[in-house]
Design brief:
By secondary structure, the protein is an alpha+beta fold. The protein has five helices and 31 strands. It has helices at 3-15, 19-26, 29-33, 165-189, 525-553; strands at residues 40-47, 56-62, 65-69, 73-78, 87-88, 110-111, 117-118, 127-132, 136-141, 149-155, 193-196, 202-208, 215-219, 225-229, 236-244, 251-260, 263-271, 278-286, 291-303, 309-316, 330-335, 346-351, 357-359, 362-363, 366-370, 374-379, 389-390, 447-448, 457-461, 466-471, 481-487. A hairpin with an 8-residue loop joins strand 1 and strand 2. Helix 4 runs antiparallel to helix 5 (525-553). The two termini are 55 Å apart.
Length: 558
């Protein structure tokens, strides 16, 4: 019998077998294991209370941390009308927002942990897909909004997934609600105020956006939030609960304060340590359950005779040039050993979580002053920039559409221009500049502050009576529009009735002794507490449950 005849007999015999047996021969477990499924995941860039309410913008990625496998893809879509970028810098300092490199796409559709890969600016009708070809812990940014970052953890192909897309959707929703609740708390607490001006006039101080910085949230060791009303110049800071690991009884708090751009102070206060012992500590990239590289080695935590350890580390980094505390992606870890050599066995850990969210409104949006009075707008958002622009009818911003990433259009100096919420840049990559005399609004011409960063202000005196409308040029489409009614100098205006107090914010949680407006009565504060607390508890519960699932899914130590 020839070989071809033998082969034919074998094939006929196999085909005569029962179909279940034939199926088991063809689809073997070994073959299935060599062909893992590569999934596509979804992440949202930005958030708002809803399509009809763009007053609050969550400047974050939701979820902030996602774990996928090698060769999986992630699709980013916008969660609000505010444009964003999705940009991986591979450890390099993110470029400035007004540079052409920050606006145009770069790097293609795959990422292996090296180089600069970016979506460029994407708008509500667009999405961005990236395929991850190498394992690692990767941080990415929106280059348009300082502090807006996310983490992608890429495990080797075939690794068991810790969560489903449904799990991440639930986590993302909780994070969105927490950010929006934090901004609502800032709105409830914030009190515009007046200052004495020259020659008996009044200066009205208006919030150009608000930030949760104005209502700093700290936590007790048991996780209960405390709210501290800060002055407009208060430092950016976050308090991080640090909990013991693997049954360790350690616990306490870490505080990170941005003392100035590029410099932070990290303070630790940990209880339950061995008396008179020292413990090493680090600030790292990632989360307690998805750990990336060490960012900074902190000073050892030195315990006293009662087992309470403290340390304080000042970090001034001209390389990273830390602009502010990120939404996610940092965690603090304490180790049992002392010094760099002792950073091997983790004993306590805490994830840094800081709400990066902005209010696209002037506060108050409508008010009345007298001729001769002045208005000072103060920028309160660390994650976005705003301007104050008064235009003539012939110079009203038309929001003319341009293609995403188009930076070729030259902008006449001092003219209002934007594209879908972003300024068109000239060939040199420069923003539209300030215009007008910057001191007195004479009811004619084009006046603009230019973009204001956190803590900067812009003041105009209004010598003439009239009704005036002004806008934030990048965000007027989101409703950031103000109305100012200027009465004759002989008119009567009550600052209190207009919603302004005569005392600047206190640095404690108590309100000013001045009479608050009806919308700011103390009776509204408990409602804010409950709303923010509920959102924070929801995030904590989901986060704890997901961390436990990660720990259960992790392989046992060898």
């Amino acid at each position: 019998m020839g070989p071809w005849l033998v082969a034919l007999v074998v094939i006929v015999a196999l085909l005569s077998l029962p179909s279940p047996f034939l199926t088991r021969l063809v689809t073997t477990p070994a073959l299935a294991a060599t062909t893992p499924t590569h999934l596509t995941w979804n992440v949202t860039a930005g958030a708002s209370p809803g399509p009809g309410d763009q007053s609050i913008q969550g400047m974050a990625f939701y979820p902030g941390v996602i774990t996928i496998n090698q060769y999986d893809k992630i699709v980013w879509k916008l969660g609000s009308f505010e444009p964003h970028t999705i940009s991986f810098t591979s450890g390099a300092v993110p470029p400035e927002p007004d540079l052409p490199i920050s606006i145009k796409p770069a790097g293609g559709s795959t990422y292996n942990g090296t180089g600069f890969v970016s979506s460029g600016v994407i708008f509500p009708s667009q999405s961005y897909t990236l395929n991850f070809t190498a394992p690692g812990v990767y941080e990415y940014y929106c280059l348009s909004h300082v502090g807006m970052n996310g983490i992608v953890v890429v495990n080797p192909a075939g690794t068991a997934y810790p969560f489903t897309q449904a799990n991440y959707n639930q986590q993302a929703k909780a994070e969105e609600q927490a950010d929006i609740a934090a901004e609502n708390a800032a709105v409830k607490y914030y009190q515009p105020y007046v200052e004495p001006g020259p020659n008996g006039t009044t200066i009205y101080v208006v919030g150009a956006s608000l930030s949760p910085l104005l209502v700093n949230v700290t936590y007790t060791s048991s996780g209960i939030p405390n709210f501290n009303v800060l002055p407009p110049s208060g430092p950016e800071a976050v308090t991080v609960p640090v909990a013991g690991l693997n049954g360790a009884s350690y616990g306490g708090l870490a505080t990170i304060t941005l003392t100035k751009p590029g410099a932070i102070q990290v303070s630790l206060n940990i209880k339950g340590l061995s008396p008179s012992a020292a413990y090493s500590a680090q600030l790292r990239l990632g989360t307690c359950s998805e750990q990336g590289k060490v960012l900074y080695a902190l000073r050892d935590v030195a315990a006293n005779a009662k087992g309470v350890g403290t340390s304080s580390t000042s970090i001034s980094d001209n390389v990273m040039s830390i602009p502010n505390i990120p939404e996610v992606g940092w965690f603090i870890q304490v180790y049992q050993g002392q010094g760099p050599a002792g950073a091997t066995t983790p004993s306590a850990c805490g994830n840094v979580s800081f709400p990066t969210v902005a209010l696209m409104r002037f506060v108050p949006a409508t008010f009345t002053i007298k001729a001769g009075d002045s208005v000072k707008w103060v920028e309160h958002s660390p994650s976005d920039e705003h301007d104050i622009t008064f235009t003539l009818a012939s110079a009203v911003n038309t929001d003319k559409p341009v293609a995403a990433g188009d930076i070729s259009a030259a902008v006449p100096p001092g003219s209002p221009a934007e594209a879908g919420g972003l300024f068109i840049l000239d060939a040199g990559g420069e923003d539209v500049k300030a215009a007008g005399n910057g001191t007195r609004f004479n009811s004619t011409g084009f006046f603009s502050s230019g973009l204001l960063s956190l803590g900067q202000s812009y003041m105009l005196t209004f010598p003439n009576a009239g009704n005036y409308q002004y806008v934030c040029q990048p965000h007027d489409a989101l409703g950031m529009i103000g109305f100012l009614n200027v009465l004759p100098a002989t008119g009567a205006v009550s600052a209190a009735e207009e919603g302004f107090t005569t005392v600047v914010h206190s640095t404690t949680s108590s309100q000013s002794s001045a009479s608050p407006s009806a919308s700011q009565q103390p009776a509204s504060i408990p409602t804010v507490y409950l709303g923010v607390l509920a959102a924070l508890v929801l995030v904590a519960v989901i986060g704890f449950a997901m961390m436990r699932r990660r720990q259960q899914a992790a392989p046992p130590p060898s």
